[in-house]
Amino acid sequence: MSKPLVIKIGGAILEQESALSALLLVFKKYSDRKIILVHGGGSTVDQMLMQAGFTTKKKNGLRVTPKSQIPIISGALAGTVNKQIVATANQLGLTSLGLSLADAAMVTCSKHPENIGEVGVPTPNNASVLEMLLSQSVMPVIASIGVLTDGKLVNVNADDAAVAITQLVDGDLLLLTDVAGVKDAQGKTLESLVQTQAQSLIQQQIINGGMVAKVNAAFNAARQLRRSIAIASWQQPQQLVQLFVGQPIGTRIIPD
After folding, report:
1. Could you say which of 3.40.1160.10, 3.30.230.10, 3.30.430.20, 3.90.550.10 is the CATH number of the domain covering 5-253?
2. Which end of the chain is more exposed for a tag (fewer CB within 10 A), N or C?
């Protein structure tokens, strides 16, 4: 049996119902693999925070999360966004169940070492519920909200959450983003990327913003899983068919 495929989605795809539906239809039509979706939802979070009178700050591509914002962020991610994805998937015939990282203690979290507020660093813990769901052909849809050992909710970077879930199920990881992959100085999508090359591109600010966190998470996953990780675009879901038949797509992150 092939390994489960963990796919991280976020960004604009969650605001475009047609784009999300197109992606899910590719899963349904072409993939016989067990799929786990892990999602963020920064745009929805930003909108809800703004409506509540809060401002959004980021540090090194990571959201700064004051304690006062946790109820809104957790409600947006584990509530609104999660249930939107589940509803769309179920409507298309993909039996799905919405979860957060905290459910069934599948992932435990420690406080993020940087001074960015109520943000957790996820560690894989208990795979039993995911294994049960996958065995019943149910697609888990997991929001990037976790919990500390003291029971407090924390925001978790969705790329880091996807890495932890991939480790938990010993799966393969695909990070979907708004661009076709990681670009070089000439704006060309790189077919593969090694750590030294990535560090150089980050220092030159060619890799910047949220892509820095995404690339770092991918290298972390690649090292711990001892296999390459793909970063690709959700904007051309038909390209995922290539992935399902064993062909490369996007940028492959190569472990050291």
Report:
1. 3.40.1160.10
2. N
Asked whether the beta carbons of 70 and 120 are under 8 A apart, the reply is: no
pLDDT in tens, 176-215: 887 778 888 888 889 999 999 999 999 999 998 878 877 8
Residues 103 and 198: their CA atoms lie apart, in Å, by 34
User: Which of 180, 175, 165, 60 lies closest to 113 in space, CA to CA?
Assistant: 60
In 3-state terms the chain splits into helix, strand, coil percentages (rounded to 5) of 45, 25, 35
Q: So which residues are the catalytic ones?
A: 8, 11, 42, 159, 214
| pLDDT grade for 245, boundaries at 50, 70 and 90 | low
CA-CA distance, 216 to 8, in Å (whole number)? 15
Rounded CA-CA distance 34/27 in Å is: 10
Please report how the helices 158-169 and 128-135 are oriented relative to each other, as an axis angle in degrees rounded to 10.
Answer: 80
Determine the 3-state secondary structure of 247 from DSSP.
coil
